[in-house]
Structure formats: structure tokens, C-alpha cells
Inverse folding.
């Protein structure tokens, strides 16, 4: 009897433990399932937020590009005139072009943040434009409806390159940024990013130029434009008075691309500066 009672007790305890274990696993499974549901919902909201941000960015970009083109045409008509009023108009148009390019560059950086990190990165307050430079008409302007038909990427790129050749750098900036916003994975994306740096360099926007050239090096390291961008970083640093870092950058070009044209140009610049 004692052996049977012991066996029954043991079986009873084992059965009770099995029930407890089952309930524990069941609760854990339900908890995990709820967590999975919450994660999936959060992920769906995140994707929806990104898509919404992209659509809003594209709509704003289209509006800015239309205005930029109009400004460029007006500027061409005014160039060569001498009256005070027309000179003031030219200054106003140029200021607005710079403002538009700032906003387009901000859109491009947000898009790149979405692609790389899945977030909309905010700029520190020190990098925000002076509110006094933003006219009431620009802040109140409603974005245009995005056209369902994308422009041809090659034609857009060639138009931007033509603007570079014609010294129309502000419009070139707009078009290259438009290209990168709409066709970030195109085979010409590295080239567009490089020429965006060249457009800034030509306008003596050296801080912006270094940043744009650095993106070529970081984002398109296998592109043929990577070594050209590194060379221009060195040139730009020297132009802005950062002689030490400029020389170090040029030495880096020589070390990494020993027999290239860029290395020869780097050597020539260092010789010109009397650097060893």
C-alpha cells in the first residue's frame, strides 16, 4: 500500500507540475504573440510614415523646381541690364534660388536618412536658415500635385550637366538634387552627386562642397568619381584656408591612387604649395 500511495503521490506531483509548465508556456506564448502583433503594427506605421514623408518631399520638390526654372528664365532676361530696379530684381532672384536649393538639399538629406537609417533626421538649430531670408510667399506656398510621370533620368542629368557648362550653377544644383531624389539608385547617381559638389565649389560654397564630395567617397566608393571627389576635397580644403588638412587629403589621393591622373594633379598641387 505504501509503495502504491507513494507512486500515486509522485504521479500526482508530476501531473501538477506538467499542468503548471503548460500554463506557463501558454502564457509566455500568448505574451510573445501579443509582442509580435505590436511589433508588426509599429513596423507598418513606420513604413507608412516613411512613404508619407517621401510623397510630401516629392510634392514639395516639384513645386520648388518649377519655381526655380521660372526664376532662372527671369534671371537670364535681366542679366546685362543696368537699371537699379532690375539689379535689385536680380539680387532678389539669386537669394530665392539659394533658398530653394537649401530646401532641396534638406529634402535630399532626409531621403538619404530614410534610405540608410529608416528615420527622418532633424537638423540642429544652428543649421536652419535665417528666418528673415524666407519670404512669406515661400512659407505659404502650397505644394503642387506630383506628376504621375517621372522625367527621363538621362535627360534630367544631361540638362543639369549643360547648366554646369553654361555656368548656371544654381539651376544645376536643383536639377542634380532632383535627380538624386528621384533616381537614387541610378547608374549616374555617383556622377550626379559629384557634380553637385562641383556646382557648390564653383559658387565658392566650400563647406557645402566638401560635404557633397565626401558623400561620393562614402556612398559610392567603387565609382570612378570617388578618387576625383577625394581630390576635390583636398582642393576645397585648401581654398577655404584649411591648408594642413588639404595637404593631407592630397597625400591620401597619391597613396590610394598612385598612378592615376588625380594623383598627378595632387602632386602638382603639393609642389605648387611647396609641400614635401
Amino acid at each position: 500500500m505504501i509503495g502504491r500511495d507513494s507512486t500515486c503521490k509522485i504521479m500526482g506531483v508530476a501531473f501538477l507540475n506538467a499542468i503548471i509548465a503548460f500554463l506557463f508556456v501558454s502564457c509566455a506564448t500568448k505574451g510573445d504573440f501579443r509582442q509580435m502583433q505590436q511589433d508588426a503594427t509599429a513596423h507598418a506605421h513606420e513604413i507608412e510614415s516613411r512613404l508619407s514623408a517621401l510623397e510630401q518631399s516629392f510634392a514639395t520638390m516639384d513645386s520648388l523646381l518649377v519655381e526655380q526654372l521660372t526664376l532662372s528664365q527671369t534671371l537670364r532676361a535681366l542679366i546685362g541690364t543696368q537699371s537699379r530696379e532690375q539689379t535689385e530684381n536680380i539680387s532678389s532672384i539669386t537669394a530665392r534660388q539659394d533658398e530653394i536649393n537649401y530646401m532641396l538639399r534638406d529634402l535630399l538629406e532626409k531621403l538619404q536618412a530614410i534610405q540608410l537609417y529608416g528615420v527622418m533626421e532633424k537638423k540642429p538649430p544652428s543649421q536652419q536658415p535665417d528666418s528673415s531670408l524666407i519670404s512669406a510667399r515661400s512659407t505659404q506656398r502650397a505644394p503642387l500635385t506630383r506628376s504621375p510621370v517621372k522625367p527621363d533620368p538621362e535627360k534630367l542629368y544631361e540638362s543639369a550637366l549643360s547648366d554646369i557648362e553654361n555656368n548656371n550653377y544654381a539651376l544645376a544644383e536643383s536639377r542634380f538634387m532632383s535627380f538624386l531624389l528621384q533616381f537614387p539608385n541610378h547608374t549616374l547617381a555617383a556622377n550626379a552627386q559629384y557634380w553637385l559638389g562641383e556646382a557648390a565649389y564653383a559658387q565658392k560654397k566650400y563647406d557645402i562642397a566638401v560635404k557633397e564630395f565626401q558623400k561620393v567617397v562614402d556612398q559610392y566608393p567603387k565609382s570612378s568619381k570617388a578618387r576625383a571627389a577625394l581630390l576635390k576635397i583636398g582642393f576645397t580644403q585648401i581654398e577655404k584656408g584649411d591648408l594642413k588638412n588639404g595637404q593631407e587629403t592630397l597625400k591620401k589621393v597619391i597613396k590610394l591612387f598612385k598612378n592615376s591622373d588625380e594623383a598627378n594633379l595632387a602632386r602638382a598641387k603639393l609642389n605648387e604649395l611647396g609641400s614635401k
The chain has two domains: 1-142, 151-276. The chain has a mean pLDDT of 74.
